[in-house]
C-alpha cells in the first residue's frame, strides 16, 4: 500500500470530519479504513480517496467506522459502584458545586449513568452539579440528546433502574426526562485544546475507552491537558483497557488502580 497516498487520504479525512489519523494508533486506524475500502470494492488508498470525494454518503459511513461508538449504561458496573460508594461522597462533602466531564461520551449512556448516581446522592443532600458530555461524533451527540436506546445499552442496568428511568415503547427504551436535567452535550474534538479549555474546570474527568485508539504521544499530551482541566484534587477515571504511562504518571496519584481511578497531584 502506498504510504504517500495513505497520508493524503488521512489529511483529506481530517479536513472533512476533523478525525486526524495522525493522532490515532496507525495499524488499527488503517484496519478501519480498510473495512470501508473492502465494503466499497476499492483496492488502493488512492482509489478509495477518489471514491470518497465523489460519493456523498461514504464520508458518513467512514465516520461511523472510525468513531467506535460502542457503549452502555454503567459499562463495567464495578467502576461506577466504586465511584458512587467511595469517591463521589468524599468530593461532594467538600464542595458547593460539582462539575463532571465525560470525554468521548458517545450516545450518552455514560453521562446518564453518572446522572443516575448524582440523583441518588442528591436524595441525601441537595446537590448543585452539572455533567458535560463531549464527543467528536455529531450523530452520536444527537442520539445522546434524544435518549432512545435498545436492549444492549441497558444490559448492565438493575431492574429497578430500568423501571424508574425508562419507558419501553416497541423495541426502544426512552429515557426519563428527569435524567436530562443538569446534563449538557457538546460536539468537541479532543485534539482542540483551546476549545476544551472554554468548558471551564472540572472536579471529575471520565474518559473511558477513548484513548485506547490514540497514539502514545497523543495520550501523553491529553493527560497534561486533563491535568490542567481538573480542579485541585480532581479525579480522573479511565477505561479498564487504559493506563497512565511514562512521565504523566507523576501527575496523578492512584486511588484504585483496578478501577482506573486517579487523583490530580
Ligand atoms: C468506544 S466509545 C466510548 C464511550 C464511553 N466513554 C464508554 O466507555 O462506554 C469512544 C467514543 O470516543 C469518541 N471519540 C473518538 N475520537 C474522538 C475525538 N478526537 N474527540 C472526541 N471524541 C472522540 C468516539 O466518537 C466514540 O463515541
TrEMBL record:
The CheR-type methyltransferase domain extends over 1-265
EC number(s) recorded for this UniProt protein? 2.1.1.80
Q: Which N-terminal stretch is annotated as signal sequence?
A: none
**Nucleotidyltransferase is among the record's keywords:** no
Q: Where are the transmembrane segments?
A: none
Q: Does the keyword Transferase apply?
A: yes
Which GO annotations describe the biological process of this protein? methylation
User: Which molecular function GO terms apply here?
Assistant: protein-glutamate O-methyltransferase activity
SMART domains registered for this protein in UniProt: MeTrc (SM00138)
- Which keywords does this chain's UniProt record carry? Methyltransferase, S-adenosyl-L-methionine, Transferase
Which InterPro entries does this UniProt record tie to the protein?
Answer: Bact_Chemotaxis_MeTrfase, CheR_C, CheR_MeTrfase, CheR_N, CheR_N_sf, SAM-dependent_MTases_sf
Reactions catalysed, as given in the entry: L-glutamyl-[protein] + S-adenosyl-L-methionine = [protein]-L-glutamate 5-O-methyl ester + S-adenosyl-L-homocysteine
Taking the record's annotation, the residue ranges forming a coiled coil are none
Give the protein's recorded name: protein-glutamate O-methyltransferase
Organism, by scientific name, is: candidate division TA06 bacterium 34_109
